[in-house]
Amino acid sequence: MKQKRFLSVMLLLACFCLTIVAKAPKYVFYFIGDGMSLNHIMGAQCFLGQKGAAQGVAPLCFTGFPYTGLATAYSANSDVTDSAAGGTALACGEKTLNGTIGLAVNQVAKLNSIAALAKEQGKRVGIATSVTLNHATPAAFYAHQASRNDYYEIGLQLAQSGYNFFGGGDFEENVNAADKDAPQLYDVAKEADYRIIRGYDKFQKGHRGNKIILIQEKDAVEKTLPYAIDATEDDLSLAEITTAAIEVLDNKKGFFLMVEGGKIDYAAHANDAATVFHEVLDFDKAIQIAYEFYLQHPKETLIVVTADHETGGLTLGNGRYALNFPALYAQKVSHVGFSRLVNRMRHETKDKVTWDQMREALKENFGFWDTVSLSASEEQALYDEYQRSIANNKDVRMAKSLYYMDEPIAALAVKILDNIAMVSWPVGSHTAAYVPVFAVGNGAERFTGQMDNTDIPKRIAEVAEYNKENKK
Questions:
Q1: What is the pLDDT of residues 163-204, one digit of tens each?
Q2: Residue ranges per structural domain of the chain
Q3: I want to staple 433 with a disulfide (CB 3.0 to 4.6 A). Which of 39, 46, 131, 310 is the partner?
Q4: What pTM was estimated for this model as a whole?
Q5: Which residues of 13-36 are buried (b: 16+ CB within 10 A; e: fewer)?
């Protein structure tokens, strides 16, 4: 009896000692797939898994993480959040109004993000995205603004944050439209001792200093990284930005890095399935970079992957109890890429694009009449759209997404191909669907079951032992 009691005491003592010596993770990675919900992930796995196979899925890096959960994602004033309120919830652990960045519901009280808390604890901090640096989700980690559209003011707060690394496409707006005498954001950042580096090649050649802004080398029209399906080897990628961020941030005290796959949302707004799945796979490549770091520091690293909301109401299946994902392999460009191609054709032919020329472009970029068979009605729909907007020399464009004005024939081609692949989209906006949570590493067991999106940063702060005080 005494021996049993002794063993029990020793076991309790051992558990107590383990609790005492357990250390908080020194390195925290926080990945946010903008607009990415369960079907976006499952679709990407089907897209990957059905190459050379009739059916099946191929796992992604983050879907293999040992701890998973689901999160609700409503905002303070709507069951359907936007990226500003969703980003604020994920950054600051508090609900706010749609359209609001880093402010409480009263739009006065400033909210401290976990990035700011990490900085207060002496950690280096990085913010990375595939869209613009002052867009809603990245902004939620450093800015406080009543309107997400105040891009110039948000950019000023980026420079004031003092974070060590920013990486993405570019600034959404570099100048103050209301004040022509106001300095450009590039100059504001340089004044705050940030070094602006354009392109990964230039970064590799040298990145002196502790405050770096890495953006793409060429000045793209939309200021984001190109869609993965459209990207060339010369384009900056999210994986390269993540690699660069780790190189800048890595130090003995540790770091916090948020990485957003922002163009998953853009493609889902446009109801472009193939482009969405390429974006999810590209997002996964960035996560793989962090996972490789975790394998080198398993006891000191936490990786959490989630999303701010679902976009598009993506449905895998359209009533025929099947999927035809191999059809999507024929798509070579995004809706944006094909719109640009059509615009070039207009210009080069002086608005005299023939149906044969358009038919060849559709064949080359969507596989129509080649690897993808069209019904008579689908072919007629494409020809009618050609006649309406191309043959009649009408510069007609429709707002297919919130971010791009597509050529109607580009949007129609994507819609037809998605239908052939048996993928459907009920809306082009956000929905109130659950968002997934995946975690691995030190403290990952905290991210299981159902939670709210505001719980995620709170749990990260608790696990990483950041300051819990939230309001400034």
A1: 999 999 999 988 888 888 899 999 999 999 999 999 999 999
A2: 24-316+428-464, 325-421
A3: 310
A4: 0.93
A5: eeeeeeeeeeebbbbbbbbbbbbb
